[in-house]
Design goal:
Elements (H helix, E strand, L loop, with lengths): L3 E2 L1 H8 L3 H10 L5 E3 L2 E5 H10 L42
Antiparallel strand pairs: 1-3, 2-3
Length: 94
């Protein structure tokens, strides 16, 4: 068994993106050593990190609905771009 894990190996074990593992390393949540361009994470540090790691659910988190919010009318989206001129607004050469 190898004494160190790579970013890709940790990401595969946790089921997260490798960039997320790099963010954990840069912030100090996960301890590791920089070896050139790569990071090396010891098994002991990875095991300690697993005790505090809580995986997020898939997708964007949603807040709870407040009372009456579910029954509120839905407003249509505003049109994008310049508003169109109606025939009454167009100038005439009279």
């Amino acid at each position: 068994m190898k004494p160190f894990l790579t970013v890709a190996a940790v990401a595969g074990e946790l089921g997260i993106h490798p960039e997320t593992v790099r963010r954990y390393l840069k912030s100090g949540k996960l301890k590791g050593q920089k070896a050139g361009r790569d990071w090396l994470i010891s098994r002991a540090c990875f095991t300690a990190f697993l005790k505090t790691f809580t995986p997020r659910t898939v997708g964007r988190p949603r807040g709870p609905l407040t009372m009456g919010e579910a029954d509120a009318p839905v407003t249509p989206p505003r049109p994008r771009g310049r508003p169109r001129k109606t025939p009454q607004e167009t100038p005439t050469n009279a």
